[in-house]
Write a structure and sequence with these properties.
mainly alpha; 2 domains
Length: 110
């Protein structure tokens, strides 16, 4: 996922988690806001501020992106981790089956 997409997603409302995403979710009087989904009170985490998100994105760019390039330059398989666990498991199995088939194809049994 690109850093700009991460930033957009990181600043979107987190209603399911019942966390107010920014100060704009709070009234000017400081009253607590309620979730539109179920009326539960929203709370704001201390680290839920723009500067912390920017800092995390900088850390990603400095530490994680170079690792992605390092591993992309190797003969490795990439598996999308966003689908369901069952779909990920099937993808891993396909890679392993292909690898095992190709590594044993040239070998003869004794």
């Amino acid at each position: 996922m690109a850093p700009d997409q991460l930033q957009r997603e990181a600043t979107q409302p987190l209603e399911e988690a019942r966390v107010a995403p920014t100060q704009s979710a709070w009234s000017s009087a400081g009253a607590r806001s309620c979730s539109d989904a179920d009326g539960a009170f929203l709370t704001q985490r201390a680290d839920d501020v723009k500067e912390v998100v920017r800092q995390r994105l900088r850390a990603y760019e400095e530490a994680t992106e170079p690792l992605l390039q390092y591993y992309e330059d190797r003969d490795l398989h990439r598996i999308d981790g966003t689908p369901s666990a069952e779909e990920i498991h099937r993808a891993v199995e396909r890679v392993l089956e292909t690898h095992l088939a190709s590594s044993t194809a040239g070998r003869q049994r004794p």
